Amino acid sequence: MRPGRVFAIVLRQWYLVRGSFSRIVPLFAWVAVDVVLWGFITRWLDSVAAPGGSFVPTLLGAVLLWDFLARVMQGVTMAFFEDVWSRNFLNVFATPISIAEYVSGLVLASVATSALGLAVMLVIATGVFGLSLLGYGVLLVPFLLVLFLFGIALGITGAALVLRLGPAAEWFVWPIPAVLSPFAGVFYPLATLPPWMRAVGRALPPSYVFEAMRAIVGGRAFSGASLAWGGGLAVLYILLASWIFVRVHRHAVRTGLIARYSAESVS
Amino acid sequence: MSAAPRTATAGEGARVLSVSGLEKRYGETVAVDGVSFEVGRNEIVGLLGPNGAGKTTTINMLLGVLEPSAGTIRIEGVDLAAERSRAVERTNFAAVYAPLPGNLTVAQNLRVFGLLYGVKRLSGRIDALLEQLDLRRFRDRRCGVLSSGEQTRVALAKAMLNDPQLLLLDEPTASLDPATARDVRGKIRACAAAGTGGVLWTSHNMYEVEEVCDRVLFLSRGRILLEGDPRTLPGEHGKGTLEELFITVAREPLALEGA
């Protein structure tokens, strides 16, 4: 793997983001709106609920963590969509870059953009609504790591989907986090779900994060092994997503899809 | 010069491109049918043919973005199928249907693609190409707001960034006015003469082909029908001009098969 080629993908994204108001704002605007909305909801719930309980670390914390996952996924897909929107596939894939280098570039670009989104969410949630993620202790690190890894897996899968089905398929990609959230038990324990939804939830790494988060906030013991299982699952999903992307790219090279993607305007 | 498939005359050590038995099939449809040819150093080879003859399909296979159904491609002796990155490092291209992203400036595009191609001393190389292609004043302008001629020159700058041993140009002057096209042709010829690489050039402008190409290959229905010097080939087939020959290839290819 040549770092220069990976850096080229990151640099391209940096050039685009720094020079574009419409790219900078979405990095934090919607997650900020989400945190503000849920911040007030939790504040109101705290005021009407029995004394002693606090919805801030459970609901607002969950919103923040889930939005972080969504931002990571979108960080990957947005960087990929830039090549879709500018019909740049032929130019990029005709260079010596390998798929591993290209996808690594997308992931690193996502690290930067999702970190910005996380920072803004933390500032608002902590400064305005008094959420302290430090209440999760050192477990905050594995929480973020599992969500980050799964977000990357979703992003790579989304990119593969659009590469395979064409630019219009991007509308399948945007709602992926919203579709998964009921299964992942973001706001409620998995036990709340019917058995079939619970089974799906157990296959999703974020569900282990949110179960652990609720256990910590509720002062209950939680299984570190199950969180580690969630991490293992996330790694597995990244490998699976990478395999899917490689297969889709190979199909695109075999069928001429990459060349046609760029030639749309003249066909 | 006559019948397909043919191979070029470049000597073994002088070849930058060797294509052998190249085929591309989509189900029952044969887009490229057993094409073999070579491109030598400092040689500009024209790949000619009517729409749908297989020119762009061939170029896409040479770029490694389309997998051949059969055949081998060697760029400076490196097998494209086996060592894609190493082979493609020696290649670059410009095509009318593949403009650089319009939302990046000229300098940004050249820097990104320079990194992708692993160009050493990139800043100096970018400056030199901006100067050479008269693009200095557009350096910090987004490519999308440039005129067709300016965008073509930027695409050529990208294509020359890594000083490619094999330069693929798919109708590089298609969208240009005659004066700009002549200017661009001159710049490409100067670059080809100064370097050690070869150029494969497609065009529908037969005047351009005669002016620029050392040798031409006529593709028809995915096969190389004719090959030779663009200045003498029409006479060898009883035609007055290259354009007449082109029209015959497009309309009556069977008349030339086995010629």
Mean pLDDT of chain A: 89
Q: List the secondary-structure elements of chain B in sequence, H or E.
A: EEEHEEHEHHHEHEHEEHHH
In whole angstroms, how far apart are the ends of chain B? Answer: 8 Å
**Helix content, binned percent of chain A:** over 70%
Domains of chain A (count): 1
Radius of gyration of chain A: 20 Å
Which CATH-level-2 architecture of the largest domain in chain B?
3-Layer(aba) Sandwich
Structural class of chain A: mainly alpha
Strand-pairing-aware structural class of chain B = alpha/beta
Distance, first to last CA of chain A: 35 Å
In CATH, the homologous superfamily of the largest domain in chain B goes by the name P-loop containing nucleotide triphosphate hydrolases
Q: What is the CATH first-level class name of the largest domain in chain B? A: Alpha Beta
Helix content of chain B: 25-40%
Give helix and strand order of chain A, one letter per element, not per position: HHHHHHHHHHHH
Number of helices of chain A: 12
Summarize the main sheet of chain A: none
Portion of residues in beta strands of chain B equals 15-25%
Key features?
heterodimer; A: 267 residues; mainly alpha; 12 helices; 0% strand; disordered C terminus; B: 259 residues; alpha/beta; Rossmann fold; globular; disordered N terminus
3D structure, described in words:
The complex is a heterodimer of chains A (267) and B (259). Mean pLDDT of chain A is 89; it is low at 263-267. With 267 residues, chain A is an all-alpha fold. In chain A, 78% of the residues lie in helices and 0% in strands. Chain A has helices at residues 3-18, 21-48, 55-85, 89-93, 99-127, 140-165, 170-173, 176-184, 195-202, 205-217, 224-255, 257-263. Chain A is globular, with a radius of gyration of 20 Å. Chain A has one domain (3-266). Chain A contains twelve helices and no strands. By secondary structure, chain B is of the alpha/beta class. Chain B folds into two domains: 1-90 and 173-259, 3-Layer(aba) Sandwich (Rossmann fold), CATH 3.40.50; 99-163, no CATH class. Chain B is 35% helix and 25% strand. Chain B has a six-stranded mixed beta sheet, sandwiched between helices. Chain B is globular. The N and C termini of chain B lie close together (8 Å). The interface between A and B is medium-sized, with 34 and 36 residues.
